[in-house]
Amino acid sequence: MTVAPEKSAELVVPEGHVKLTIDGLEVVAPKGELLIRTAERLGIVIPRFCDHPLLDPAGACRQCLVEVEMGGRPMPKPQASCTMTVAEGMVVKTQHTSPVADKAQQGVMELLLINHPLDCPICDKGGECPLQNQALAHGRADSRFHETKRTFPKPIPISTQVLLDRERCVLCQRCTRFSSQIAGDPFIELLERGAQQQIGIAQEKPFQSYFSGNTIQICPVGALTSAAYRFRSRPFDLVSTPSVCEHCSSGCAERTDWRRGKVMRKLAGEDPEVNEEWICDKGRFAFRYATAADRLLRPMVRDADSGQLRESSWTEALRVAAEGLAKARDEAGGVGVLAGGRLTVEDAYAYGKFARVALRTNDVDFRARPHSAEELEFLAASVVGTSPESGGVTFRQLESAPAVLCVAFEPEEEAPIVFLRLRKAARKGRTKVFHLGQWTSPAVDKTFGTLLPCVPGGEPAAIEGLFFNSGTAEAFEALSGSGSVILVGERAAEVPGLFSSVLRLAERTGAKAAWIPRRAGERGALDAGVLPNLLPGGRQVTDGTARAEVEQAWGLAAGALSAEPGRDTDAILGAAAAGELGGLLVGGVDPYDLADPELALRAIERAGFVVSLELRPSAVTERADVVLPIAPSTEKSGSYLNWEGRRREFGTTLDGTGALPDCRVLDTLAVEMDADLFTQTPAAARANLERLGATASTRRAEPPAVPAPPAPGAGEDGVLLATWHQLIDNGSLQDEEPNLAGTARTPVARLSAATAEQFGVVAGEQVTVATERGSVTLTAEPADLPDGVVWLPLNSGVSRLRRELGAGHGATVSLRPQARGGNS
Amino acid sequence: MTNEVSPLTPVLTKRWLSPRSWTIGTYEQLEGYTALRKALKAHPDQLIQLCKDSGLRGRGGAGFPTGMKWGFIPQGDGKPHYLVINADEGEPGTCKDIPLMMADPHSLVEGIIITSYAIRANFAAIYVRGEALHCIRRLNAAVKEAYAAGYLGKDILGSGFDLDVVVHAGAGAYICGEETALLDSLEGRRGQPRLKPPFPATSGLYESPTVVNNVETIASVPFIVNGGSDWFRTMGRDRSPGPKIYSLSGHVTNPGQYEAPMGTTLRDLLELAGGMKDGIPLKFWTPGGSSTPLFTAEHLDVPLDFEGAAEAGSMLGTTALQIFNETVSVPWAVMKWTEFYKHESCGKCTPCREGTYWLTQILQRMVRGEGTPADIETLLDICDNVLGRSFCALGDGAVSPITSGIKYFKDEFLALCETNAVSTGKHALAGAH
């Protein structure tokens, strides 16, 4: 190595920065930066336990001590580099150049280990343990501790999902600080003092948090382990593949760890633009659905003689499916395509193209949930095509927004990472969060938010009155601040006039509106054109220029694509039930998620020919003529578009399982029908989609302009139903995870004290909510709902509202107390 | 400056022997609340300056200049200001604040009112050790009397100044004597020290500017207001002026509180206290509670003020002089103190939590006669790894008795190892390897 002959150029210190020296190296750092980070930027790693870049400094473990000199005078004691900020002229000596710092670190390490069980050989963390690694790097080779170690019974479950081994704990408080600072779930705390100090929970109060798994991941020792992964494998046996979460529309970066063809665990990946370093427990733990015993692995066709499904070869199944679909298309009124909301962009594109090219129809819709024509207009006018590059709302913008209004959107339940950002924005910045909803849910409290209460269905009226109502004018004013955001959720489709009102509010205040669907695939399917009114890239079906572009790219004859918008999900089902559609192609749709499950089931029964693409059996399977198994997200590559419109690409985690992605199955099926999709692989589908490019058409979709209806009333005898999904519920992607299920929020029926009294309902006792179709009985819990409203979770435990009541948000239901003591 | 002891004119303790000294009546007869009247006529900044001029230093142990602390409170910041009295007296050997609050609670109350006026606080809290129930009752009674007499509440003595005082009982944790842990505890949180900065002067109780002062410090304030800073400086030494309550305990003929000017020596104090009990010679003593390094008979003439104690290798601390005669084993006493620190370590930081746990066990083993000379080296090395490495000063205090004990009495520690060397040779190792 040669030494540079001339003196290196003097470092320039920009405004707001200081110059200091660490281990003899001059460095410029922004004011306020912690020494431990500045050192890290220089490649000097100081050992640490309590320090975490996303948590407030604690200075508790004392592992990161360094020597500091200020103004030429050495500080008398070594300083914790995780709490001390940089200063002009500071001279820092880490363990590399200071014997004092080195001895201090070795001393702390020795002390940390005296009460540690040193059970690395049987510890889940062994092999990826900061304590193990740093003890090797900065610790003594042997211990001088000959006394009696402190012991605790172990492990104790602090929830059904998280187990605590107090002997291994080094009391860095990362878990408690994460819970109180990041998640806002202070159900885990320090107890006792001195060497008896320990992490714990209150009696009978388990650590209930949707984010508890993060504490396991950031635990720098093996103190917190997950029930699902405990003792299952060693870190060095695992292969780690970067992945993207398939659950909600946040699109979190994840790391999937697997071995011998089996996923063992998922960890949060790091992406500062999206999920920072956190994921929710659903994203972390809910992956075993893909290996459930009932997973469909072989194609099935319905045997003409027995009427039963039987396993078949791919060749046979594809031939039967192609023939049936072609016949339905040509002779029985056509085929409708229900694609579902959990597809990758590539798979969604294949569904859209299959509908247009092979089935020659616009009867295609990804919305496997209540929806509306107003929503279609909203999506076409305001959502499709938006992305961080085009100036769309982003996670980061939530952090800097002066105000955020959540409309028909329950962030903690529907997009937990959005919730974490909102909480961070409100906690660290000055963002005011408003929730247009029915009651002060935990998310309202934890985002330091303000509830703007309204009855279900009364959201548009509330928005229109925002400015005029003295109680809400503050929200209107805050939203008028530059950079404010309105977030609207999937439930808005159940409220007529709401999308229109949101757009009007956005126009009046200058706030940007963003749509946050609940499912991972919805946003991608929208941009891939899996809607009756939209072709890929937001091209309108009714736009001749746009159609011509697609026809050309797809090699179709001019005029091959219909100019007529197709039917939406409800209309497709209605037509099928009425015998007007000859066939259905259903991809991953659970009829019980739809607005009217009875209609859906009737439609599937009635449709002459039904092809189902599914991972596991559903109510569609029982009624399908051909069942084609497809690959779960771990066994294919692809990309999701998250709610921001940000592309979240992922590669195949488990290769060679033989499972085929939807786009491949559809491509082959199309070939059987003499059509070419060019979607043999996700990469091919992506290339085919990208060839389309952006449209040259200048025609813009008209935004919806539905007048806001007056706030509804339920009449004398009924009440209005408010409902939304809870994050951890009966969703089939959470199957096979009993430990996760144990952390679900208990389903209860919430209602105001006055409403309870009116109907004779007693808090803590059972109440029955019913429609003509059926009833659901839950424990009543008082909450600050408007009078005449009852809230139930949409699909939690026995509270399966679509299935049991055929009702959703805004419906009128009846309410009666359950007679005490019984089954009468 | 002089460090002569006589004549001993009591200041802080002058009312203690008066009949029913704790009542407002007695207090008022003996100049009580005259300083307050005087203070309320002055500008608050004048009072801060007076305190600075007097050279009064904190009596809780660290000796921080009181006037400077008051001056740190930002004025005109629009935030409420708070005065918090640290009455969580818990240092082993320390027993000056509780007698003061028992005998003369109104001197504290009057000091609180004057100080609050000076720092523009309208709320003050007295954080008292929870076990001192008798003291809490007496303080509550005094505060009630002061309210009834118009010294507390709205528009005190027509000055337009409002002040409320609350007596808060702690829950018996030594760490809550650390000012930021005290503030957390007062806020209803777990009592553990806070990260500094921010310091209490800018972000203390409820994130507002807060002065935390010891009982004796604040009780000195009315005397300074009445006597003036020059009078105050006639007592004690240049950098540590004023009177001080010295608490003598252990093997002395008459243990108790002895008020004397700052800088008084143990030799003089022992004279006041009637000498060593039964004439058995002095062996070792603490100048200011168990957190201050030990002194021996060599140190009888060390002037006991902040500088004097520091120059002799210890600290003034709380002027709690625990006095031990030749019958006491130093390793045993050090073990007992270390057991105390182990019990009281809050657990927040590694060195203090684990260090005290380990040190206690080594000392217990040595006292049992199962130690080795290598244990002494280990003890010193652990102490080195705790001192100055822990989050707050508790860890520093915890190792003081050990390092100073070994410094002056290493032979006694070695003697404990001899029996062991004869009997077993080597102790069994448990775990860890």
TrEMBL record, chain A:
Q: What reaction(s) does this enzyme catalyze? A: a quinone + NADH + 5 H(+)(in) = a quinol + NAD(+) + 4 H(+)(out)
What GO biological process terms are annotated to this protein in UniProt? ATP synthesis coupled electron transport
| Listed EC numbers | 7.1.1.-
UniProt key word 4Fe-4S: yes
Question: Which cofactors, by name?
Answer: [2Fe-2S] cluster; [4Fe-4S] cluster
Q: Which PROSITE patterns match?
A: 2FE2S_FER_2 (PS51085), 4FE4S_HC3 (PS51839), 4FE4S_MOW_BIS_MGD (PS51669), COMPLEX1_75K_1 (PS00641), COMPLEX1_75K_2 (PS00642), COMPLEX1_75K_3 (PS00643)
Q: Where is the 2Fe-2S ferredoxin-type domain?
A: 16-98
**Record keyword Chloroplast present:** no
Positions of the region Disordered?
695-714
Domain 4Fe-4S Mo/W bis-MGD-type residues, every copy: 238-294
Question: What UniProt keywords apply to this chain's record, in alphabetical order?
Answer: 2Fe-2S, 4Fe-4S, Iron, Iron-sulfur, Metal-binding, NAD, Quinone, Translocase
What does the UniProt cofactor note say? Answer: Binds 1 [2Fe-2S] cluster per subunit.
Domain 4Fe-4S His(Cys)3-ligated-type, which positions?
100-139
Kindly list the GO molecular function terms attached to this UniProt entry. 2 iron, 2 sulfur cluster binding; 4 iron, 4 sulfur cluster binding; metal ion binding; molybdopterin cofactor binding; NADH dehydrogenase (ubiquinone) activity; NADH dehydrogenase activity; quinone binding
The EC class name is translocase
**Pfam families, per this entry?**
Fer2_4 (PF13510), Fer4_NDSU1 (PF22151), Fer4_Nqo3 (PF22117), Molybdopterin (PF00384), Molydop_binding (PF01568), NADH-G_4Fe-4S_3 (PF10588)
Give the family per the record.
Answer: Belongs to the complex I 75 kDa subunit family.
The free-text function statement in the UniProt record for this protein reads: NDH-1 shuttles electrons from NADH, via FMN and iron-sulfur (Fe-S) centers, to quinones in the respiratory chain. Couples the redox reaction to proton translocation (for every two electrons transferred, four hydrogen ions are translocated across the cytoplasmic membrane), and thus conserves the redox energy in a proton gradient.
Per its record, how is this protein called by name? NADH-quinone oxidoreductase
Q: Which organism is it from?
A: Kutzneria albida DSM 43870
From TrEMBL, chain B:
| This protein's UniProt keywords | 4Fe-4S, Flavoprotein, FMN, Iron, Iron-sulfur, Metal-binding, NAD, Quinone, Translocase
Record field: catalytic activity:
a quinone + NADH + 5 H(+)(in) = a quinol + NAD(+) + 4 H(+)(out)
Listed cofactors: FMN; [4Fe-4S] cluster
Q: Which Pfam families match?
A: Complex1_51K, NADH_4Fe-4S, SLBB
Positions of the NADH-ubiquinone oxidoreductase 51kDa subunit iron-sulphur binding domain: 331-376
Main function: NDH-1 shuttles electrons from NADH, via FMN and iron-sulfur (Fe-S) centers, to quinones in the respiratory chain.
Q: Name one GO molecular function term.
A: 4 iron, 4 sulfur cluster binding
Q: Which residues form a coiled coil?
A: none
| UniProt family annotation | Belongs to the complex I 51 kDa subunit family.
SMART domains tied to this protein: NADH_4Fe-4S (SM00928)
- This one is known as NADH-quinone oxidoreductase subunit F
GO biological process terms, alphabetically, are:
cellular respiration
Q: What class of enzyme is it?
A: translocase
Which source organism? Kutzneria albida DSM 43870
Q: Which NCBIfam families match?
A: nuoF_fam, PRK13596.1
InterPro entries recorded: ComplexI_51kDa_subunit (IPR050837), NADH-UbQ_OxRdtase_51kDa_CS (IPR001949), NADH-UbQ_OxRdtase_suF (IPR011537), Nuo51_FMN-bd (IPR011538), Nuo51_FMN-bd_sf (IPR037225), Nuop51_4Fe4S-bd (IPR019575), Nuop51_4Fe4S-bd_sf (IPR037207), Soluble_ligand-bd (IPR019554)
This entry's Enzyme Commission designation comes to 7.1.1.-
